[in-house]
Amino acid sequence: MTYDILLALIAFAFVSSITPGPNNLMLMASGANFGFRRSIPHMLGIGLGFTFMVLLVGTGLVQLFDRYPVSYAILKIASVVYLLYLAWKIAHAAPAKDADATGTPMTFLQAAAFQWVNPKAWAMALTATTAYTPDQTLYAICIVALVFGAVNLPSVSTWTLLGQQMARILTNPRRLVVFNWTMAVLLVASLYPVLWPN
Predict the structure, then answer these.
(1) In this structure, how many other beta carbons lie within 10 angstroms of the beta carbon of residue 52?
(2) Domain count, the chain
(3) Sign of the C-alpha dihedral, residues 16, 22, 25, 28?
């Protein structure tokens, strides 16, 4: 991998990791509802889960979809159903004062598994492994995964911190309900590219 390709990869990893998407919207809601510390397993699950996903996609998992196109349709349906379920959970999250008693943030394993039904994660992994590893060597794929692992964690942490800071103005239960519903609607809106691709 040349220096120019590496710089382009880092830029792509940063832009795609920091921009809004299902992971970041859920982390913002988690930061607001549960705080930064309780959201750490969620953040680590995204960072490590996505890194592992890039490795598997780059080493040939995408060939499964080429060979069995129905598997991609099944994945798309599962993605939509699961994101709608998560949006419902965010919309109905308990007020902050009750969160310790009634709510729990996403666990490490749940967040890592979520990458496999996250449309944005699939788009990122497929683009990264095809555009930035022209020779498709294991070395190049590992570099792509490591770059995403290094860039992803600070990016998702930013969204969690933003949510935690917003919790200061969400002390009013009514404001928190509006925030949670807004996050849920944005999460559903993030399905637009999956449901109506260009």
Answers:
(1) 15
(2) 1
(3) negative
Instruction: Give the residue numbers spanning the domain of 142.
Output: 3-191
In order of 112, 138, 152, 187, the CA distances from 145 in angstroms are 15, 10, 10, 25
How long a stretch of residues is the chain? 198
Q: Residue 196 — very low, low, confident or very high, per pLDDT cuts 50/70/90?
A: low
pTM across the whole model: 0.78
Q: How far is CA 114 from CA 22, 110, 187, in A?
A: 10, 6, 14
- Listed in sequence order, the DSSP H helices in 103-137 are 108-114, 119-131
**Tens digits of per-residue pLDDT, 81-130?**
877 887 887 787 765 455 444 568 899 999 999 999 888 888 888 888 88
Is residue 198, in this structure, part of any structural domain at all? Answer: no
